Amino acid sequence: MQRRLVVTVAVLALIAGGVTGCKKKSEEQAQPPQSVVSTAKSATTNAPPSPSATGLTGEQLFKQHCAVCHPNGGNTITPSKTLSAKAMADRSKITKPEDIVKIMRHPGPGMNKFDEGMISNDDAKKIGEYVLATFP
User: Fold this and answer.
1) What top-level class would CATH report for the domain 34-134?
2) CA–CA distance, 32 with 23 (Å, rounded to integer)
3) Which of 42, 60, 77, 116 could bridge across to 56 with cysteines, CB 3.0–4.6 Å?
4) Cβ(73)–Cβ(65) under 8 Å?
């Protein structure tokens, strides 16, 4: 009798753990990417952040928005398209921060779009300046 009770409790524990685990995965999958959340938040306020509202440096902004796909100036999606200033100039004639802002606003396949509601023009320019200065 005691063995049967132990087996029953063990089975119930496995079932409960499995249900809880599935629920966590469903909740994680249901969460939209942070970029979607940020865009949705700015869309609901109908006002992009003021140009210098963040007060963050180009490096901080790069780490916040870009470093996941461009660690150390690389490119996890298209490895041949690094953020090296020389490579960008040779490949795409990108030579100034404004060129990088244009790419952020209208990216090619594989890159997220960063509109003014997500990153102000001043902050986007800070990112461009940081990229050109940091990844020669």
Assistant:
1) mainly alpha
2) 16
3) 60
4) no
CB 130 within 8 A of CB 61: yes
The pLDDT tens digits of the residues spanning 66-116 come to 999 999 999 999 999 999 999 999 999 999 999 999 999 999 999 999 999
DSSP string, 54-113: S---HHHHHHHHTTTTSGGG--SSSTTS---HHHHHHHH---SHHHHHHHHHS--TTS--
What does the alpha-carbon distance between residue 116 and residue 21 come to, in Å, rounded to a whole number? 38
For the chain, domain boundaries = 1-31, 34-134
135 half-sphere exposure, CB direction, 13 A CA radius: 28
| Overall pTM surpassing 0.85 (yes/no) | no
Structure tokens at 60: 């901080």
